[in-house]
Amino acid sequence: MTGKRHDYQVIVTWTGNLGEGTASYTAYSRDHHVTGEAKPTIPGTADPAFRGDPTRWNPEELLVASLSQCHMLEFLAQAARAGVVVTRYVDEPSGTMVEARDGGSFVEVILRPRVTVARDNMVDACARLHEEANRTCYIASSVAFPVRLEAFTEVDGRPASAEGTPAGTLH
After folding, report:
1. Which domain holds residue 18?
2. The pTM is what?
3. 92 and 69 in a common domain
4. What SS3 class is residue 9?
5. Rounded CA gap, 38 and 9, in Å?
6. 86-113 pLDDT per residue, tens
7. Position 72 in a domain
8. Residue 166, preceding peptide bond in cis (omega within 30° of 0)
9. 98 — phi, psi (to 5°)?
């Protein structure tokens, strides 16, 4: 693949040594910090199913959040270019991971954006903009599982359409 290169650097620091290090599977905390230059620290851990702290972010949640963020940012950019005025955007995505004996993997992520647009004549463009956003989202293009969409568009709080019913696979 050729094109402009973008590099990303973060620091992940394990903070869970409870005095014995990893002497046993139960002897340590999964807690860690994700940091970067001039950014707030993200308190990380493992999924609670793997002895993680349910009050901290786990990698699986952050993957789902990354897909949602990427889709939203691409959608908003596409909307601005198309003259579609988005006044509100809320997503409640979910992801499903399946454990196997030798590891596990995500089997799908479902994005559920609820988009509010300024005028009725902007509603029809939203389905196309969601498809374009999924195509151009770098994160969605990088995963090996389907990213499905169950989008809903409204105008000034009035329901306008339920896009993606039934939910379609975008990636």
Report:
1. 11-50
2. 0.88
3. yes
4. coil
5. 12
6. 999 999 999 999 999 988 899 999 999 9
7. yes
8. yes
9. -120, 125
